[in-house]
Amino acid sequence: MNLTKEQEAILNGQQGDVLARVMKTLMRYGELFGADSMVPISSKYNHLVTSFGLKALTPVYELMDKLIASGNLSQQKFSADPRPLDKNVPSNFLQDFIFQNFMYSKQEEYEKQLNQLGLMEKDAFTCTCYMDEVGNTPAMGEILSWSESSAVVYANSVLGARCNRNSGIIDLMGSVLGMVPNFGLLTDEGRKATWIVKIETTKKPEAQLLGSAIGMKVMADVPYIVGLDKWLGGSLDEAAKTYLKDFGAATASNGAVGLYHVENITPEAVKLGQNLIAEDAKVYVIDDAELEKVYKNYPVIWKNKDAKPKLCFMGCPHMSLNQLIDWTQKIEAALKESGNTKVNIPTVFTAAPAVLKKFEETPYAETLKKTGVITSYICPLMYMNNPLSEKMPVITSSNKLRTYTSARYYTDAEILEQLTKGGAS
Amino acid sequence: MKEFQGRIVAPGCVTAKAVVSHGGLNTLASFQKALQFGDKKATCGDQNNPDLYGKQMAGKALCLPQTIGSTTGGLVLYCACSMKRQPACMLFSEPIDSLAAAGAVLADVWLDDVSMPVIDCLGEEFLNYVKDDMTITIKEGGVVVVE
Asked: For chains A and B, what is the number of CB pairs under 8 angstroms?
């Protein structure tokens, strides 16, 4: 890698051993992918994946202490993934005890570290930092040092920013140094599609299932998706953005997709069209049968597959404002139709604190409250990842939550039916 | 016995028994429970990985195409190394992905007393040939012997 004199000096320890190790880490990381140089980060804010004071991650906190103690703080303010705990979310005594005293016993201490390093503001905890209400929305072409797979794929694809699928810690090291290695999705060549995905379904594909299918097929490659635009109304409006948020998260959790292009919809596809497709790109056709196959192959790991759900989580990644409103309307209408007044499964809708604040200003907040649905800023994944929650029959329409936990996936329509009518088992 | 040539991501020589994942290894889903609940064997907890689910990963030669999933992947690997629950080595048939690369480099640069040799680019034939419990030896220069 070609380093400038200043960068070489950092590597040689002239600004201390800790910063030298940060430089060495990023340089070696970049060299593995053919990076030729380090490039400055140009986004206003960073976003970190690690938001939870999980005792198991003690080595990470020790590393952060080294950065803080040596004065190597983040040069950008940053947001971070959602907090793992919220007393509004139903939990039993044992869960509370284990969450507070065992699993997330480092939470308070860790949040102090984040504040010292450069957290945007005290409630900047969400996986959807790119929402307008949160304010960490990079512009097209900006270079980022983000992590959080669902945020990276959204920033690259829907916003046209440039970011590799960085891991936790690498994200922070980028903003400590103020630069990242230049490779992969930061380059024009790395953003070319090596797959053409043709959507040939007879109805709008379920975002989660479509993302899951594509993720499993293309893994870390870049797909160029043809035929989805007609189901998204032909433009990148709020509904399309919400769809792509959930779709992208599924591509990134069932595969390792960091960027996708949707013909006529996403900014680079609009600008460059099929010039984004690399020579010899492979083709993957998705029809109704393919999505059905993906759905049927999802394992159900509940001990009792016929158990009545004890909890429903919606919002992994966090819901958008229009998604909260849309679901409020759907639940209200479905309850009215079934003659019920409240959902019959304890249900939690999760969203960014700033989005929830905005939602509270709308009349829909009161309507939703009357249906019995709880809103929270929690990370459902962090709530679910322990032996106590794992045994609970939890349902969701999030493929990401399904992938990482014992939560059982249902389509949006099936979830709505279960919440309002008792529905399918 | 067969030899394969790969690229050194993190240096070191080691001999260990193989565990093989033919699909991408979801690092968070695979290691999280083991790290949270003190499982020194690092039993794989990923329900979506039929090759590895329920098998010990710590101390094994973990053979895989790439890692997939959450971008906590690198720090999870780093923690597994720091807590001495890491595989004896990681052997990738394909070029390493950014998350596994981050974990391997972080462990190598920041942990002075831990070793987890990592070799990538071993080729599809490697993953077709290697089976669970075969003996793997990493030699100098990125040479991997499977027997």
From this structure: 129
**Chain B residues with CB-CB distance to A219 below 8 A:** 24, 66, 68
Angle CA A122–A123–A125, to nearest 5: 120
Q: What is the pLDDT of residue A425?
A: 38
Any idea what DSSP says for residue B112? T
A97-116 pLDDT, tens digit per residue, is 888 887 888 899 999 999 99
Stated as kind and residue range, the H or E segment containing B10 is strand B7-10
The verdict on A198 touching B (C-beta cutoff 8 Å) is: no
Domain boundaries, chain A: 5-186, 189-296, 311-420
Digit-coded pLDDT (tens) for A175-222:
999 999 999 999 999 999 999 999 999 999 999 999 999 999 998 899
> CATH code for A5-186?
3.30.499
| Contact by Cβ (8 Å): A209, A92 | no
What is the nearest CA distance from A214 to chain B, expressed in angstroms? Answer: 13
Domain boundaries, chain B: 2-146
Structure tokens at A159: 């916003």
A5-186 shares its CATH topology with A311-420? yes
Give chain A positions within 8 Å (CB) of B26. Answer: 403-404
What's the gap in Å between the CA of B69 and the closest CA on chain A? 4
For B2-146, CATH gives: 3.50.30.10
* ipTM associated with this complex: 0.93
- The CA-atom distances, in angstroms, between A62 and each of A109, A145, A218, A309 are 11, 21, 36, 39
The CATH homologous superfamily for domain A311-420 is Aconitase, domain 3 (3.30.499.10)
CB pair distance less than 8 Å for A148 and B71 = yes
Establish if B82 touches chain A: CB-CB under 8 angstroms.
Answer: yes
Tokens 């700033």 label which residue?
A354
| pLDDT (tens digit per residue) in A376-397 | 999 999 898 777 888 899 999 9
A58 interface with B at CB cutoff 8 Å: yes
> Whole-model pTM?
0.93
CA neighbor of A63 nearest in space, from B38, B84, B111? B111
A255 touches B at CB < 8 Å: yes
CB contacts of B33 in chain A (<8 Å) are 385, 387
